[in-house]
C-alpha cells in the first residue's frame, strides 16, 4: 500500500516538544510535548474527533495562540510566508471591502502593482474557475463562496506553508471534489507544504500525502498512514480497495 | 407614521398649556412659559437682528475646534490602548478618574492657563471629549476580531494595514457612538461656559442675556435653536456613519 515518501524537500516547519494549555496555568493541556516536521511540498492531514486539539495545533503554529513551551521553527534558512485558513474563515475576511479587494489583499499588503494583482488574480481564477461575483461584499456571498474566497486569498499570498482548518466544511459536494483535486495539484506544482485539519476523512485522503490519526486532548498521534495513488486522485481512487484499506487502518486506530 | 408626528404632538401640548386659563388667569405664568407663537416670533426677531447667525457660528466654531482637537488626540490614543492590553490596563484607572470629573469643573483652571476667551472654552471641550473618545475607541478596538488581525498579518499586513484597513473600520460603530456622545457633551460645555463670562456672541450668551432681561420668549428661542443644532449634528453624524459603513447595507 505504501508508495514511499515522495516529499523529501527541506523542512519548512518543525515543532519540537511543543506544549500548550488552554486558560490559565493548570488549565486543560491540549498539546503535550508534541514534535512534528513538515517538508517542502508535503501535504499532511490531521484526522481526529472534535475537541481533540487539532485546531489548537494550527492556532499555535500560526502564532494566533502562544505555546507554553517548546520550539516552533519556520523555514530552513530563509524566512517563509505562511497563510492560515482559520475555521472562522468568514471572520478573517474584511467585510468592508468587496470580494475582489479581499482576494487581492496579500498583493496590496506587500505593495504590489496593479499588473501583479491582475496576474495573481488570473492565476487563481484559471485554476479555480468558480463563479464568485467579485464585485459583491463578502457578507452577500454564500458561506461556501466565502470559504473559497478565503482559501484563494491564502493561495494568492504565494506562501511556502498553508494551514487549513476544515477547508471544505461549507462547500457543496459537487464542487468539493474538483476543489480538493485542484488544491492538491496546486501544492504539488508549487512545492507548497500544507497541513490540513479535518474530521472528514475523505477530504484528507484525496488531498494529503499522509494522514495522522489523532486523539486527545492532549493531542496524541495514533497512526501515520500514507494515502495511496498519485495526484490528482479520482472518485474511483477514493472507492478503491487500497483506499478503503488505508481508511480502515485510520478508523480502527481511533 | 412619520417622525414629524411626534413633533406635532409636543407642539400641540405646548400650545395647549399656554392657552389654559384658570379663573381668568393663565395656568402657567407667562414669565415662565412662552407659547410656540411667541417663541417663533422671538426666533424671527433674533435672526433678523443678525445676532442668531453670529451666536450660532461662534458656538459651533468653539464646538468644532474642541472636537477636532479631541478626535485628533483621542482617536490615536484610543487605538493604541485598544491594541495594547498592557497599556490599556495600566491607564484604565487614570481614564476612569478623568472621566469622572465633570468637565465644567476644570473651566476655572482652563481660564487660568488659557485666558478668558475662546481658548479656555475649547480647552474644556478637549478635556471632556478626549476622555470619552479614548474610552469608546479603545473599547471598540479591543473588541475587534483577533483571528482577523492574525490571519491578515500572516497574509502580509503591517501594523499600519492592521490599523487603517482593519481595526479602524471594524470599530467604526463604537467610534461614532463616542463622537456622537462627545458632540452632545461639547455643546453643553460650550453653552454653559458662554453663560459664565467673556464672550460677545454665543448661544449661551444669548440665553444668559435673555434671562437677565426677563425676555422669556427669547429664552425659549435659544432652547429651540440649541435643540435643532444638536439634532442636526446628530443626523449629520449618523449619515456619515452610514456612508462609511455602507458595506453593511450592500447585501
What does this 3D model show about the protein?
The complex is a heterodimer of chains A (254) and B (251). Chain A has helices spanning 54-62, 89-92, 99-103, 105-109, 114-127, 143-156, 173-190, 201-207, 235-238, 241-253; strands at 11-22, 28-39, 43-47, 69-74, 82-85, 161-165, 193-198, 210-215, 220-226. Chain A is α/β, with parallel strands linked by helices and 254 residues long. Chain A has a single domain, classed as 3-Layer(aba) Sandwich (Rossmann fold), CATH 3.40.50. A six-stranded mixed β-sheet of chain A has the order 5-6-7-3-8-9, sandwiched between helices. A three-stranded antiparallel β-sheet of chain A has the order 2-1-4, covered by helices on one side. Chain A is globular and about 45 Å long. Chain B contains eleven helices and two strands, in the order H-E-E-H-H-H-H-H-H-H-H-H-H. Chain B has a single domain (34-244), classed as Orthogonal Bundle (MetI-like fold). The longest helix of chain B is centred in the N-terminal third of the chain and has 33 residues, at 51-83. Chain B is 78% helix and 2% strand. In chain B, helix 3 (51-83) packs antiparallel against helix 4 (85-100), helix 3 packs across helix 9 (172-196) and helix 6 packs antiparallel against helix 9. Chain B is mainly α. Chain A binds chain B through residues 62-64, 81-84, 86, 88, 91-97, 105-106, 109-110, 136-137, 139-140, 153-154, 157, and chain B through 145-148, 150-152, 154-158, 161, 165-166, 169-170, 245, 247-248, 250-251.
SSE order and pairing:
The complex is a heterodimer of chains A (254) and B (251).
Chain A: E1 11-22, E2 28-39, E3 43-47, H1 54-62, E4 69-74, E5 82-85, H2 89-92, H3 99-103, H4 105-109, H5 114-127, H6 143-156, E6 161-165, H7 173-190, E7 193-198, H8 201-207, E8 210-215, E9 220-226, H9 235-238, H10 241-253
Parallel strand pairs in A: 3-7, 3-8, 5-6, 6-7
Antiparallel strand pairs in A: 1-2, 1-4, 8-9
Chain B: H1 3-19, E1 21-22, E2 25-26, H2 36-48, H3 51-83, H4 85-100, H5 107-114, H6 118-142, H7 146-154, H8 159-170, H9 172-196, H10 203-212, H11 216-244
